[in-house]
Each structure stands twice: as structure tokens, then as C-alpha cells.
Amino acid sequence: MRTWNERLAHALAESDLNPNKLSVALGVSAPSIAAWIGAGTIKRAENITGENLLKVCKLLNVRPEWLLFKEGPMRPTEMKSLTPEMQEVISTLIEIDRSGGTGRDDVLYFMNRLLKQADTSGQKVG
Q1: Where are the domains of the chain?
Q2: Which of 3, 6, 19, 29 could form a disulfide with 33, with the two C-beta atoms 3.0–4.6 Å apart?
């Protein structure tokens, strides 16, 4: 899935919606949806308005960063049930991952060690 259009088509295919239902839910024309997903002989749209992008993402439960740029996971992660401390740790890990470099490699090494250690000690992981 190289383009946002292909990712949108993929997310739509995984949802309970079809292009017509999505157009009704968004209040846009069916040809607009067809252009977004590049359906049939309709030329793919090159862009999408911010308002429609956010509405589509909410309806299809996908992250805007994933849809537009294929960054991060497709679906939003649910962190509401986590403690504030764990939310901060996860947010920090995400930032380290985005920055790359040796810091990221170090974090991955130590996280893998911790997960293996928890797994071999019988602690529940995940």
C-alpha cells in the first residue's frame, strides 16, 4: 500500500462500511469516495480536506498519520486503561522510536531483555 488512496481502500474493505455508506456518513458525494479510493476508471484524488480526513479516520478507526503517510500503526492504541506513568513511558518510547539512532537500538535491546525475562519467569506478558 504505497498511497493514501490504497490505504483508505484497505481500511474501508476491513470495515462494515461500503463506499456508498461512507459517502452518506460523511455527507460527501459517492464520486468523491470513488476518487479517494481510485475506484474503477475514476482518477485517484491527489488530496483530501483535513475535515474529511479526520471524519474518515474516525469512522474507519484508523490513524490519520497512517492513512496519509503510513507512519505508525493503522489503528489508534487504547491507553485509557493504563496508569499515567505507563502512558508516559509509552509516549517516550514512541518518541525514541521516531528519532531512531543508537538510542532506539539501546531501548529495543533492553525492552527485549525485559520481555524475555518476564516471559521466562512466568509473568504474564502483553
Answers
A1: 4-69, 84-120
A2: 19
Per-residue pLDDT of the chain (126 residues; tens, 9 = 90+): 789 999 999 999 999 999 999 999 999 999 999 999 988 788 889 999 999 999 999 999 999 999 999 988 898 876 667 788 887 887 788 778 878 878 888 888 888 888 888 777 766 555
Record the cell numbers describing residue 103, joined without a space. Answer: 538510542
Give CATH for domain 4-69: 1.10.260.40
Question: Residue with C-alpha cell 476491513?
Answer: 14
Contacts of 62 (CB under 8 A, 6+ apart): 7, 11, 56, 74, 75, 76
User: What are the strands, taking DSSP E only, across 19-83?
Assistant: none
